Fold this sequence. Notes:
By secondary structure, the chain is an all-alpha fold. It is 61% helix and 0% strand.
Amino acid sequence: MPPSKPCMDLDLLEVGSWLDKGALDRESTILPRQQQSENQRQHSSAEPRKGYRSETTEPAGLSRQQYRNRHTKSEYQLLNSLTRDVVEAIQRQHPACFMKAEGGQQGSNCQGTRQPFEDKTICPQICLNPRLLGDSEVNPFAKRESHTKNTVIVYKILTIVTWLLAIIVSFYYTFNSPDDGVWPRRKIWKQNDHYHTAFRMNHIIASIYWIVLFVLQGGYIAHLFSGDVERVNSACAVGSHFILNNLFHFAFVMLFVRSLFGWAELIIILNFVNLSSLYFRHNQYARFIHQPVVSGPLAWTFVAIYWNGAIMVPHPHTLVARIFGNIFIWSILAYGLFFIVFYKDYTMGFNLSVLSAAIGVSQFFVQVIALQWIFAFTIMAVLFVATVVVAVPAAAGKTRQHDAERAPLLPEN
Length: 413
């Protein structure tokens, strides 16, 4: 047996049967197909044939660089684009390929120990096969801890474009009515004032809510251009949901001002699913992300389901409709207390208290002798007090350790 060499190289030969040349041709753009085939022929002595599991040991005198150069430039170019979380996913699925080779032995015959991934020198035959990668690279909503340079650029462009789109359409239809459509066409708040529903809002308070939210979202976007890698990765982690939220907001406004309330309700529900998924999957980021991207839009979307839904139903001003409104408005309190009690999320409590105040003020001026504005102000008061009870200790740094681990808000960096 040849003398044992230091544990330097990762196993490449044992997994040769995993090579998917079709996937390699689709994914690689550095070298043309002809040059890639030529490189494979030049290194045929080191590459096993497809479907063949080699038991050949690595020559003791072969350097690490020579060992790695058995693979084409296009393979390593694609390999280097993989993020750490993708590589760790491959490591979990194929741990044998990450065994350190000792004594020249390969693959499952290796007597070494599994080591944490420290660099990107792993088996290209596995990395370049999309069937083995799963959908983490394809799914834009997959949870990632790091992002490639190209991914960050894409997030910067799409986030800015969709954010501006949401702002422009909101401001335009606040002051202008649409010119097309067969149903009644009105400005955003003209639609709100035209229907005296149980969830009619005060347009001044609601407009201030959205202006502040848009400004805070601008601060979130600025973190995409930060020099702090951790901040950039955190901002990119919620980028896909934020982009989709902006598109849903654009679609909702376009439908709402044209009195297509049924389609608008569908869009609101879909966005509620999107933002709920965002909250429960990404609820441990700092305030600069959580408030403008997660809790602010989610609180509005939850209330907007009732706001638009009350307009959508026939005869929303009747006694029956208002009785149902008296019942459903308490769901705002239950929803807010859920996040305050279980997640210690004071931003959700504050956001919902502001929107409850918008409903209460509007209902007071519409019908003084009624229960809806009383209920709305009661909900606002309870949520605000609960928010203060949670926010003050958190700001003073007196929250317990186990609560801090469950809370979605981390201290500012």
